[in-house]
Amino acid sequence: MEQRISLITLGVDDLVRARRFYEDGLGWRPHDAPEGVVFYQLPGIAVALFGRADLAEDAHHPVDGRFSGITIAVNQRSEAEVDAVLEQAVAAGATLLKPAERVFWGGYSGYFADPDGHVWEVALNPAWTINEDGTLTM
């Protein structure tokens, strides 16, 4: 398998509420999609919102309500940007899980959960470069 990810799909309980969070709260712009799903183009990857029950049916895997151990990270160029993104997410309705702090691997990061409980890390890794187009170079 080629080493890449092209789409991350988040199962959501309420598609309208989830769209409000990502679009009105975080400022993301949706891409054209069939009814019942929303796509957002990011640099080099896309994120989809899809009903949680529909996703469970499609994947043939029940929703069990436990933290899956998967997080989604959005790296920033400075500590101030990390703080600003966390503040924006909380203002939009996210739950702050961990305020940003300097971490053992030499960076700075914090976590929030979106209204459906998906865990996002917002981080600065000084060893990585965030290019002008938003892509990451390790």
Explain this structure:
- By secondary structure, the protein is α+β, with helices and mostly antiparallel strands.
- The protein contains three helices and ten strands.
- It has helices spanning 15-25, 52-59, 79-91; strands spanning 7-12, 30-31, 37-42, 45-51, 72-75, 95-102, 108-113, 119-124, 129-130, 136-137.
- The strands form three sheets. The protein has a four-stranded mixed sheet with strand order 1-4-3-2.
- CATH architecture group name: Roll
CATH first level: which class? Alpha Beta
Report the order of strands and helices.
EHEEEHEHEEEEE
Major beta sheet, specifics? 4 strands, mixed
Domain VOC: 4-125
Protein name: Glyoxalase
Pfam families: Glyoxalase
Organism: Mycolicibacterium obuense
Short account of what is shown:
With 138 residues, this protein is an alpha+beta fold. Helices cover 23% and strands 36% of the residues.
